[in-house]
Write a structure and sequence with these properties.
Blueprint (H helix, E strand, L loop, with lengths): L3 H16 L10 H10 L5 H13 L5 H6 L2 H7 L6 H16 L5 H5 L3 H9 L6 H11 L9 H9 L9 H11 L4 H19 L21 H4 L1
Helix pairs in contact: 1-12, 2-3, 2-9, 5-6, 8-9
The chain binds a DNA duplex (13 and 12 nucleotides) through helix 3, helix 6, helix 9, helix 10 and helix 12.
Amino acid sequence: MSGPSQRLLHLYHTLLRAFGPQHWWPGESAFEMMVGAILTQSVAWTNVEKAILNLKASGVLSPQALREIAIERLAELVRPSGYYRAKAAKIKALVEHLDGYGDDLDRFFDKDLDDLRTELLGIHGVGEETADAIILYAAEKPTFVIDAYTVRILDRLDLSPASPWYGAYKAWLEQHLPGDAGMFNEYHALLVRLGKDFCKKTPNCTPCPLLSLCPTGQARATAIL
DNA sequence: ACCCAGGTGGCCC
DNA sequence: GGGCCACATGGG
């Protein structure tokens, strides 16, 4: 008989074997990751890439430049990522907050994980998933990021906590896995890879890496997602 | 033409 | 504290 820890580790190794390391988060700097974390809210990453490209081409992918740019112009630049007016306001809120640290991310991140998380949640536009993505991928501290793919895949595998809240999934995973930031990083990225690049695009995916893990034997991704 | 994509905040009860 | 809803573009 195998408990949640064994099953979660097995899932991790299965995905890692199937897909290899994902090298997340996509982005050249911690600040770019933070902006990307906001832009990717409820939107396909391909849209975010266009928006980031616009910001780079305009030379405004820095906290100071983003504070100085007019919000209407910022909105136009991030337009491809959807919800563009709302996201422009969120980015403004983020860089205003960073102003309090002289735009020094190391100084911003240099605090207890829970304190950093609470502070992030106080920024307009930063909810739990975005906060955890920033903590894990930009600050490189061990928190597990829960997103829609994670929930659906774990539910399908009957590997879910009792309560359906964000915090319950997060606690469930952190409780049953070694608290290693590198592993949380890779694990979340692999779950998204499975959901995004594999399941949707491969109807009846015969080589589905979850096949041996699914209790009902119906781990075809079309069934999962 | 429709559906959905790596959520969040505001408002209502 | 939960249940709705607005927010909006781009690709399948």
